[in-house]
């Protein structure tokens, strides 16, 4: 069985231990010959390395383990790059969330003005990463996990035609795991979904179990009766995420045709979301005071105990299983079916061919093969077309260095009430993102 070399780009992330845990646990399905942690921050790499030392003891004999800040060392001999970079770190995420809230507009990491701000920062960083990988390695698959995935996917489509680049997101998996648990199942992949939309902007229309039975009608009734059960792990079970899960029932009551992605709350109820938001303490602060502090605390305890402290890996849970499953399906030409982000090309025939949609795809060694969803109802089509236009204009702003395209994008976004508000937010975001954004003229 062929073995593979994997680099985790952004290896200093608090999500890395969860990904490495999955790689270790899935060595039979996806055997490794080398595992690389790469980051531009030596400090963060050292912290994650300390935490992962306990994990890598379970790597099979002969697997090389490398920790590096050198891109040539990281990329020269790899088959897969798992990319999870965050340009500007959590400090810039905090600005993404708080600046829109100053104007009573949704402040969220990947949606609305915050997602726009993050997207314009991410595109140059993702391009630099891809160029560096291709400089040292022409054939590696890049599994991009970097947010905001929808905007990034549109940008990589334009520049690289997404050749051996697959953009993915774990949120549908997180939600689907909650679905599975409510139905008495154990794993997200015990349900075969039919799903259409964009990243953080989509709907489930069918949920088939392994007997071919559509469980969606049964699940809909359960959710309408008692709400969506909170997800299984610590990361998605804190008070802020529980509020997100509780909003699911409200969306379903108003729009009962399909099961929604939880992020739709920001687009369907922007006013109510802002009213419930703490403008001084957003999700970025929760992550800094939670998962980030816990990671550094675990590293401190390891040092103090001279390596004897047993790390609580549940603190760093990420959906690494999904990333590894995707890579294994490509590596061994399994053709397994997963929700990933691809160019539409007729999967949803009433949408533009070059829209980057999130739909079920069979993953082969040559790439994703999307299923045909067919036509979708007018209400959902209208919402998606508006969001696609926003995403394309956001990428236009980067490619054209255009203030006008940026203003058009924000004006079009459903979370922003007027062009005047869009301009005020844009001007403040330009100031906040100096050194990260292109020079918009």
List keywords for this structure.
Rossmann fold, single chain, 6-stranded parallel beta sheet, 15% strand, 3-stranded antiparallel beta sheet
Structure in words:
The structure is a single chain. With 441 residues, the chain is an alpha/beta fold. The chain has a domain at 4-169 and 285-320: NAD(P)-binding Rossmann-like Domain (Rossmann fold, 3-Layer(aba) Sandwich). Helices cover 48% and strands 15% of the residues. The chain contains 16 helices and twelve strands. The strands form three sheets. It has a six-stranded parallel sheet with strand order 3-2-1-4-5-6, with helices on both faces. A three-stranded antiparallel sheet has the order 7-8-9. It has a three-stranded antiparallel sheet with strand order 10-11-12. Helix 4 runs antiparallel to helix 5 and helix 6 crosses helix 14. The chain is globular, with a radius of gyration of 21 Å.
Q: Quick one: overall form?
A: globular
Measure the end-to-end span.
Answer: 54 Å
Low-confidence stretches: none
Radius of gyration based on Cα positions? 21 Å
Content-based structural category: alpha/beta
Percent helix, as a range, is 40-55%
Write down the CATH class of one domain: Alpha Beta
